[in-house]
Amino acid sequence: IVMTQSPATLSVFPGERATLSCRASQSVSSNLAWYQQKPGQAPRLLIYGASTRATGIPAKFSGSGSGTDFILTISSLQSEDFAIYYCQQYNNWPQAFGQGTRLEIK
Amino acid sequence: EVQLLESGGGLVQPGGSLRLSCAASGFTFNDYAMAWVRQAPGKGLEWVSIISASAGSTFYADSVKGRFTISRDNFNNMLFLQMSSLGADDTAVYFCGKGRIWEVVTPVVNWGQGTLVTVSS
Fold first, then answer.
1. Which of residues 54-93 of A touch B (CB under 8 A)?
2. Which residues have a Cβ under 8 Å from the Cβ of A41 and sit 6 or more positions away?
3. In sequence order, what are the residues at sequence separation of 6 or more whose Cβ sits closer than 8 angstroms to the Cβ of residue B20?
4. Average pLDDT per 10 consecutive residues for chain B, totaling 121 residues
5. Staple B26 to which of A37, A42, B2, B53, CB 3.0 to 4.6 Å?
6. CB–CB of B4/B96 below 8 Å?
7. What is the pairing mode between strands A9-12 and A101-105?
8. Which of B45, B59, B106 sits opposite A43 (nearest CB)?
9. Closest Cα to residue A93, out of B65, B95, B93?
10. Shortest CA distance to A95 belongs to which of B86, B30, B48?
11. Mutate which of B57, B67, B94, B105 to test chain A, going by most A C-beta atoms within 10 A?
């Protein structure tokens, strides 16, 4: 399964909302996760099951979708939200990550 | 607090072998699936392998199948990745990760800080 994220880079003003997309080449049901990674750090799980926030993740992060099309929405962007975001399907073998979306300050 | 500490990375010649280890603490190790994910310098994340809590199920990325072997020691709370026939494409930071549940249909909930493997002559 190939995971395709769009856009590759997203420029957004602080305080605004960001919408990131992830598409699977075939259905992954709801077995889709989103991660955030900042430079020099390990990734952090944000969302699993397509829409369930991981422990400690604020409500500003929300996920939706099922099957092949998924969305990560981040509201009221703050400086600490600017990072690279990856989706991952864990429904089929081998598991796969998308290529990432870089969220940058406009 | 969940802690995952990778070790065993370093410089290895092409065609060589290396064994990575991950020491886990802060949770009941034998209740959770564990995984390895790697990241080449300046590149995105690449899923490598996963093992179920009981070690009854293992899966591998096509790029490492037949060359890498994942294993675990539930008595000593350790995860391993035995790597052989290494090539330049295997150069990456290797992250150890804890799953959300015992089975392999799971995202990576907790991550170590990674260990760098460099394959070069």
1. 54, 84, 86, 88, 90-91, 93
2. none
3. B6, B7, B8, B9, B36, B80, B81, B83, B94, B96, B115, B117
4. 97 98 97 98 97 96 97 98 98 98 94 98 95
5. B2
6. yes
7. parallel
8. B45
9. B65
10. B48
11. B105
Instruction: Evaluate the omega torsion of the peptide bond into residue A43 and state whether it is cis, within 30 degrees of 0.
Output: no
The Cα–Cα gap between B45 and B60 comes to 15
Beta-carbon neighbour count of residue B7 at 10 Å? 13
How far is Cα B49 from Cα B64, in angstroms, rounded to an integer?
9
pLDDT confidence of residue A93 = 87
User: What's the half-sphere exposure (Cβ side, CA atoms, 13 Å) at A102?
Assistant: 9
| Residue A37 C-alpha, separation from nearest chain B C-alpha, in angstroms | 10
Q: Please work out, in degrees rounded to the nearest 5, the angle formed at the alpha carbon of residue A34 by the alpha carbons of B52 and B108.
A: 20
